Amino acid sequence: MNPLKKSLFRVTGIVFCSALAACGGSNTPSTASTASTTPSASPTTLSASASTLVLSVNDIGTNAALTGTARTLTFTNTGSAAVVDFEVAVTPALPNDAQTSTTCGSTIAVGSSCTFTITPGATPTAGVGDASARPLVLAASGSNATAVNVAVSILGYGSVYQGGYVYSIDDTPAAAASAGGVVFEMTNATSSPAVWSAALTTTNASSTTNGQSNTTAIINVLGSTAASAAETCAQVTDGDVTSWYLPAIQELVGGTQSAFPTLGAVGLLTDTENAEFWSSTEDAANTIQEVDGVLVLSSPATATETDGYFKGSSLSLRCAHAF
How far are the Cα atoms of 152, 174, 224, 305 from residue 244, in angstroms, in the given order? Predict the structure, then answer.
């Protein structure tokens, strides 16, 4: 018998009998005979367009690069039944000045997708120098679908992320992707101070802006077993990241987003005062023997480029990596 007809039949029968006291039955229908059972939704699965979402703060007053681009996650029902009771929860909560919007309803049909957009404000999720900060957890779920988690970070200058201080942010990627950037080691590399290289030879590390390419060029010429500042950075694993490199000179000072002035301006790197630091950029006037470096006097915010450091000198070094 059709379940709907059966349910209607039972209800009709009870109403009919309850109207006839002479039938000998009770005028009060039993709970057991009137209850209907709502079948539970079939299990299904959700997917997210990314497992990590990085956003920049909106702070163009500090630097025009910090545009606070809104970024979007897409959730897709990849199972064989509709997702019901769909919801998104962020733990801990987003900063008060961040806004969210969504195209998602309470259900997602099989094979369908919807979006969830975060528009950051000026407040980062990781405060300046807060080494305990962790990404927020955005969980999307349904009553019949296990949650999919996305690690969400809104970053500003000095935020701690992947083992370093954020000093450069690229907010130009498409809205469906994460913002990029570069972080600087929070302390000097373990073998610092150290020589740039014991060997006096040109390594073609000529870029003033790309320390990653310089580091690769140096190691290619000197070898990965030779003692060098570049190899020291390549061996760093802070933040469980293995792509650290020796920064180019304009990544340290002189660029639009450079480590020393940017981080010095927010009160960090005070332990670098009265020190000299290697860059990965060979001095164009003498690539065989000399390298561009950084001189920090009373404040990292006013650090200056100093050319002509002899490669065999012993200088401090801090490494960087892009995210």
Answer: 22, 25, 14, 22
Domain boundaries, the chain: 46-166, 194-322
Strand duo 164-170 + 314-315: pairing: unpaired
CA atoms within 13 Å, Cβ hemisphere of 245: 24
Please measure the distance between the N-terminal and C-terminal CA atoms of the chain and give it in whole angstroms. 62
| Residue 220 phi, psi dihedral angles, 5° rounding | -60, -35
Q: Which residue has the tokens 């080691």?
A: 185
Whether 175 contacts 226, CB under 8 Å: no
Q: What's the pLDDT tens digit per position in 60-87?
A: 999 999 999 999 999 999 999 999 999 9
- Pair of tokens at residue 215: 């580091």
Q: Which two tokens stand for residue 140?
A: 């999307």
CB 266 within 8 A of CB 175: no
CATH number corresponding to 46-166:
2.60.40.10
Least Cα distance to 169 among 154, 147, 185 occurs for 154
Token code pair at residue 274: 């009265």
Q: Which residues are CB-neighbours of 25 under 8 A, at least 6 positions away?
A: 17, 18
Distance between CA atoms of residues 255 and 268, nearest Å: 18
Angle at 207 between CA 201 and CA 213, to 5 degrees: 85
Alpha carbon distance 94, 107 (integer Å): 24
State how far the Cα of 6 lies from the Cα of 96, in Å rounded to an integer: 53
Longest dimension (CA), the chain: 115
Say what the pLDDT of residue 312 is.
Answer: 96
Counting residues of the chain whose pLDDT is more than 70, the rounded percentage is: 88
Q: Is 120 exposed, middle or buried, given 0-12, 13-18 or 19+ CB atoms closer than 10 A? A: buried
**Is residue 129 a contact partner of residue 158, using CB atoms and an 8 Å limit?**
yes
- Averaged pLDDT for residues 100-108: 98
Show Cβ contacts of residue 123 under 8 Å, excluding neighbours closer than 6 positions: 57, 95, 96, 97, 98, 154
* CA atoms of 88 and 256, how far apart (whole Å): 37
